[in-house]
Amino acid sequence: MTQYDTLTALLEARYSCRAFLPDPVPDETVERIVDAARHVPSWCNAQPWQVSVTRGAATDRFRAALTKAATEGTPPKPDLAWPKGYSGAYAERRRTCGFQLYDAVGIEKSDRKARQAQMLRNYALFDAPHVAIVHSPAELGPYGAMDTGGFVTAFTLAATALGVATVPQAAIAAYAPLVRDLLGIGNDRLVLCAISFGYADPDAPANGFRTERATPSDIMDWQD
Prior knowledge:
With 224 residues, the protein is an alpha+beta fold.
């Protein structure tokens, strides 16, 4: 198998896990994941990414606080502006992903109460034993955030290679001030997203579907 084949196999094996077993990931495995992910490129080699990783009681406190904020309707206050909207193919992909999840867990599309409950699972971290809060320097703005996106991708691939499941979650960034207070992250950092991780529950229906992907021809625009 070539290196390209190995990389492609990891990319195809990675998925957003939405149900985890309670078993913790050994510290040395987490460190290996970060050790691999740190090699991604960044503008001027700034390497702006930092991760605050929870385990044990810290994960439970974090999920409880987030769930409380989301349930009580605390107004979102993300550090980066949310998308203005989803249109065209982007809206269709988003809709299809949502419907695939609802079908997998047996939620009728018209059942708003059940859909809301499933949405709140984000803030329970899908019962993951760990969450990595990903942040970058505010002074680097969107370019620091862009570089950090590469780190998120590498983190999820390295985790997959080690048998650890992940789910990147932008939803957590809605409560950036709360995240800062809980984890001691300074105001000079942008809270970008979370990566909940652990070992996947193989029997959970939420883990039984895979999203569709655009083809190279959908993505590329050759210029001659």
